[in-house]
Amino acid sequence: MALTRPIDAAALDRDGLKAAAAAFHKQGYNCAQSVICALAPALGLDSDTAFRMTEGFGAGMGGMTETCGAITGAVAGLGTASSRGEGDPTSKAATYGLARKLVEAFREKNGTTVCRELKGVGSEGGPVRSCPGCIEDAIDIAVDILSK
After folding, report:
1. pLDDT digit string, tens, across residues 121-140
2. How far, in Å, CA of 139 to CA of 23, rounded?
3. 5 by DSSP, 3-state: which?
4. Which phi and psi angles does 108 have, rounded to 5°?
5. Which residues does the chain have with pLDDT short of 70?
6. DSSP codes, 93-120
7. Residue 114: phi, psi to the nearest 5?
């Protein structure tokens, strides 16, 4: 699927995005906010809007430790890039396909997409992946998808 929103390819610098996302996370942004706010300039998205719309996605959707916030932030970015907008809702199937690619790649890399499993909550084995690591993975996968 061709992306419907122009992407600033220069702003898809993987290392720069990871550094920006890490800095956001250190400032107290949740994982979803860290990912989408790092991607916002490349997507032509207002970062305050991105921050606000993903505030409830942190800690696995409102602190419920379900789907990893880094994943949801990246999926929000993919939707921003691929949706045709409210005037033409026919792009959702293609956007779902991009979201599936991201989720499948994340799961393949980490074994799960569930926040509590990634953090090792209730597990004797400990964490699978740290929040900063999940943020990096989500950025990497999103850049791979957006660069195609």
Report:
1. 888 888 999 999 999 999 99
2. 14
3. coil
4. -60, -40
5. 1-2
6. HHHHHHHHHHHHHHHHHHS--BHHHHHT
7. -90, 125
